[in-house]
Amino acid sequence: MTLARPQPAFSAARQQSVAAALRALLPPASILSDLEDTRPYECDGLSAYRQPPMVVALPQSEQEVLAVLKVCRDMQVPIVPRGAGTGLSGGAMPIADGVVLSTARLNRIVRLDAYARTAVVQPGVRNLAISDAAAPYGLYYAPDPSSQIACTIGGNVAENSGGVHCLKYGLTVHNVLRVRMATIEGDVVELGGEALDAPGLDLLAAFIGSEGMLGIVTEVTVKLVPKPAVARVIMASFDSVVAGGNAVARVIAAGIIPAGLEMMDQTSACMVEPFVQAGYDTGAAAILLCEADGTPEEVEEEIARMKAVLEGAGAGAIQVSSSEQERMRFWSGRKNAFPAAGRISPDYYCMDGTIPRKHLARVLTGIAEVEGKYGLRCANVFHAGDGNLHPLILFDANQPDELQRAEAFGAEILALCVEVGGTITGEHGVGIEKIDSMCAQFKVAELEAFFGVKRAFDPPGLLNPNKAIPTLNRCAEFGKMRVTGGVLPHAGLPRF
Amino acid sequence: MTLARPQPAFSAARQQSVAAALRALLPPASILSDLEDTRPYECDGLSAYRQPPMVVALPQSEQEVLAVLKVCRDMQVPIVPRGAGTGLSGGAMPIADGVVLSTARLNRIVRLDAYARTAVVQPGVRNLAISDAAAPYGLYYAPDPSSQIACTIGGNVAENSGGVHCLKYGLTVHNVLRVRMATIEGDVVELGGEALDAPGLDLLAAFIGSEGMLGIVTEVTVKLVPKPAVARVIMASFDSVVAGGNAVARVIAAGIIPAGLEMMDQTSACMVEPFVQAGYDTGAAAILLCEADGTPEEVEEEIARMKAVLEGAGAGAIQVSSSEQERMRFWSGRKNAFPAAGRISPDYYCMDGTIPRKHLARVLTGIAEVEGKYGLRCANVFHAGDGNLHPLILFDANQPDELQRAEAFGAEILALCVEVGGTITGEHGVGIEKIDSMCAQFKVAELEAFFGVKRAFDPPGLLNPNKAIPTLNRCAEFGKMRVTGGVLPHAGLPRF
């Protein structure tokens, strides 16, 4: 894709004074302001949108985080928090005249309590590093986004990240017990705790997935879970996506909660097979991967039950992994779908809608029908068990109109998700990418509730502004809200 | 207990005008204002605190809920929402010049979807009625507070209720997918949804347990779970509470998540045994009840593992229920601990602290040490698996000083819970009872975050004021907060 590289949009004097104020409180090497140093921060995984920040700050302690927040509050500088920058919705995209607060140097595992099965970590600790540290105790951290080798727990908290095992083990929100965070007003607040319930309002869940709008995470307490003794995966072929979708519904209806339940369509299988040689049945219209984990007896019983359900649902070829190596091979195609898309298409646009499971077949059929309308191919991979779709729209940004067609195709898929009772994002977040779709998803009163909470945590509106929640003005411009006589309902809301 | 019965505290003219405004919008029979009609609403399960309300409203639809809210908003009348009135912390205690909004007539099961395993119910539906309606499909609603025959799902949402099975199946917050609620400003807002994740702020968890301060529930979507094929319970005796506490820790450390893991001390066992004839070992210092549920194979395996762990932890007598009837008998003592306390003591004060499981033995020893200091007995029953203690302090309010001594004893137990890293309430809520203890539990910045969210949902501060979250003024009076030069930090917060 050919990308315009926007130039800085702030005065040199402003940049110098903000950088100087920060350097007075943090080691000078922790503050970057030369364009060659700030360029690496110009985008996250949603690389179509780029903007170098005015300044990058790399605090090494909670005290330094508070110092950055103080300077930004005093000088009215917007702040964009950033983990590893692997996000897919532009949540960490810089603001031209703002500071990027990177958690990269807050990367210490503070404490690991194998007895209580918890770990206390700083926000810049990588997702996989937690499991590595817990491995000697037979424990691991369950959520496993595809980017887990690189992404950080702070970013996971910001986006409420999931992964292929979240059907059984939950999202970030189900695996984090406590968040310690710094507010823009200079307070340090702890949300949640190690007890099952706590008095006061439970704001932990509101914070998790708030995309950096409420505060800066300085410490996270995560649950660790015992590593299952065994895991095996079934790979089953279906001759239509409808049959595959129905098989997913039947597995769940049978009362089975697989450790993973993923589906790929033929386009995806054909796309990844040459790349990873996973042994996928490229003649099948849909492939299901269905995993069981636990004790050997539990796994044997669950594999047998799942196999029976899949056969009853019309599965053609069925293979069950007989070794850990084979299990990893079966998964390799699913886990490499995104890089594989990059091999066969100059560009791709990854969507992230959710739908009630029962509408899986209907939505797949709907997407196939729209492919022709836009003249673009769409490869479909899904966290099928929890109804989270990742359609990959393949396009070439160098061809006239293709980016626009891909975006329109994507918007149509999300509208279809909302129409059947789903949502516009399952796990990638709203960021800047899907902010207009939020106007379709929520009512004014609901957006107002979000703003109210935002105001409670961030009165000056400096934390990651214009991300995640659209202003009512923006929704009005997007045309989803009726404006009577030029006056917005509930006018006078601040612009975050 | 001899109770003062406070008289109404409002002018007759005010009462008449509020009642008339409500009768203009609701059927007249749905509005109660005669003292003989409003008396039954003067307290909840925390019967030491009584106050008849000015008016009681019994709306029968969401429209009528909105009408009640409109009248109260226009006339600046505080509102106390009320389910079945079984709460134990005074959350539903009326305000003298306020309206009690009872959800008793919002008692319809709107929809039950056995395939999606969800039920949509109005807030006045009883907890057990949901399971009764789901029984023909082999499903049930998991959270089972002791009051489940009477308490309503709306009250469960307000208090985030648990039950003896919440270790495995979670609290209300883990079993509710969506709440539809009316705001004081007249909007209807839906929080949560049926998808695993949703964009926007996740305010569902903040709403659940908010004790009626954020809005009035008009509809709840709950998860239903398959009824386990079999359940069996182990009853094990220990010769010290320390040994019992350590056995709990060992069960959890072995990676077992029992369906229930409850502990009673000798005082409790001796108190309930004459009442229910459960067959409890009244010679034991502590009794553990440890339940397994699932398929017959799963239960057999888990019972064997738990038995081995308990034996290894020094259990004396061990019995395993061999029939459903025997299982119910083993549980009957635990479930009847509160009524049994009423038989042997004129009054009792039920505490509800939580602690990290590892400190169970330490806290039990601490409570025993304090018994002598106050000259009062304390019977201990616990949701041991999740560290939720219910010490029952036995006293006689007719004896001089005993109520005061019981309250001081209770406060000391809660302080001990907080000291070891626990909380002042596990599942009964804060209400009016524990509002001062909140000052010990939370920092100013944390209370401010709560207020900010409260303001976002309820700008006029009319919903259940002076419950659940203490004002900073109140904390200052309670002496837990330093007041500098007569000025509160962050003065100027509204008084909710």
UniProtKB/TrEMBL annotation, chains A, B:
Cofactor(s) of this protein: FAD
E.C. no: 1.1.3.15
Pfam families according to UniProt: FAD-oxidase_C (PF02913), FAD_binding_4 (PF01565)
GO MF entry, a single one: (S)-2-hydroxy-acid oxidase activity
InterPro entries associated with the record: FAD-bd_oxidored_4_C, FAD-bd_PCMH, FAD-bd_PCMH-like_sf, FAD-bd_PCMH_sub2, FAD-linked_Oxase-like_C, FAD-linked_OxidoTrans_Type4, Oxid_FAD_bind_N, Vanillyl_alc_oxidase_C-sub2
Source domain of life: Bacteria
Alphabetized SUPFAM superfamilies for the sequence: FAD-binding/transporter-associated domain-like, FAD-linked oxidases, C-terminal domain
Ranges of residues in domain FAD-binding PCMH-type: 49-227
Record keywords: FAD, Flavoprotein, Oxidoreductase
PANTHER family named among the record's database cross-references: GLYCOLATE OXIDASE SUBUNIT GLCD
Protein name: Glycolate oxidase
